[in-house]
Design goal:
Length: about 190
């Protein structure tokens, strides 16, 4: 749960802060420009993440037409938010030795396990959420590449896509095909640190 809260809070805050900085005040007015993870949790996405290792945070509504350079800024928001979550993963992984060295044995093991879980979850979340499918963050990349007005179409079907994605995760179809690759890539990244 700690890992999910850290990942959701970081991701939602970065999307909202970037969108606001790039011209769309909507996420800020909606109360999403906060590090409070509860403002960013998605019930279905969070449960999928907790139980199956694949999930998402509550999507931040970004209006491309409000951004200064809609296509560029939307793509930048997606890439930067996923990169921020990946950086959190790397930092938490690198903090493990410090936790082990500075805490008594019992708490050190718990802290190291929490940091390891957060690192793994953050990197997996970043990779999975790069897919250009609503409600994942990659949908911003999809909208940035599609013709003008596509955001409304993507938003209209986002809840249906979220349900379909949840069904694919819960039935085991998506985890069977994606989790081995995500775990291998995550292990490879963490092994390089």
């Amino acid at each position: 749960m700690v890992a999910i809260l850290v990942v959701s809070g970081t991701h939602g805050f970065v999307v909202a802060a970037l969108a606001t900085a790039l011209g769309d005040a909507g996420p800020s007015h909606a109360g999403r420009r906060t590090l409070n993870p509860f403002a960013h949790l998605d019930l279905v996405g969070g449960v999928c993440l907790l139980l199956f290792g694949l999930g998402w945070a509550r999507p931040v509504q970004v209006a491309p037409e409000e951004l200064r350079a809609p296509r560029r800024d939307l793509a930048l928001t997606a890439v930067a938010s996923l990169a921020a979550v990946a950086v959190v993963g790397v930092v938490t992984f690198l903090l493990r030795p410090l936790a082990v060295a500075s805490l008594p044995p019992g708490p050190a093991v718990a802290a190291a396990a929490t940091l390891q879980t957060t690192a793994t979850l953050a990197l997996g979340f970043s990779l999975f959420n790069a897919l250009p499918v609503p409600p994942l963050t990659g949908r911003y990349l999809l909208v940035a590449l599609l013709p003008k007005g596509a955001a409304e179409v993507v938003d209209r079907y986002a809840s249906h896509a979220g349900v379909a994605l949840a069904v694919l995760i819960v039935t085991g179809l998506l985890p069977r095909f994606l989790l081995p690759s995500l775990r291998s890539l995550t292990t490879w990244v963490l092994g390089r640190l």
